Amino acid sequence: MPIEQLTATDLAKKLVVILQSWPLYRILEYTGADEVVAVPKFLSLYCEPCQKDTFWETQVESHITYKKGFTAKEYTCRNCGAAAIRYYFYWNTGKETSSFFKVGQYPELEERVSKKLEGGLKTEDLKMYKTALRLRNFNLGIAAVAYMRRIVEDRMNDMLEILYKAAVTHNAPAEILARHEDIKNDKRFSVKVDYAGDLLPSNLRPAGQPNPIAILHELASEALHSKTDEQCIDIFDECRNTFEYVFGKMRIETEAAKEFVKEMARLAMKRAKSD
Fold first, then answer.
1. Could you tell me if residue 188 is inside a domain?
2. Are residues 126 and 87 in the same domain?
């Protein structure tokens, strides 16, 4: 892991991200910000009793340093006051750099999958996806990416079908739509990823901006074999955002749009008959 040069503000923000979402044993090694010796007072986490993201709070005593090796800290949901999460972490300063990493937390880092995504995945794929999340949460990035790649490859044609329907709804150019069946039958993963980017509605891909689905190319990259677990965690998280959006939110929105068009056609036909 590279050594980061951080200001006090940078470190405070970084500690929030680490506690909220970093896997166990992923190490932040840094210089600077020596004045920061306390963990953040507030976090934003999903609360199971509240069934939503809420603010969580802990007591931070200004006269106590948490930069003393192994320490534990508990946060409580400010909304319900009942849910609590306890972190176990290591934080210390060496001769030249400081280090911070989580060694445990309870309840464990969530492997929660949204209801929308559950509805878009087959049982076998959902099981494999949860395994990928578990591997990611234990900082086993290379294995997590391998599982993600398998799911994306298996479901790539399904992804193209969702994007194709969205493209039709958004009046995509005919020449793009005409390639659909040929691309689905193509065996090359990279070709399908490129086409997925072409199908993406323009409002989700502003002019001059890179194809947000292109991150999936990383899953098929030969260079993946030379990356570290930490680098693969970053790739996994970026691919996860794309994957969950397409199979979750976009799938539902596309189906809703199709139903709307059918309903409008039905009403138009009914009106024509009445006239």
1. yes
2. no
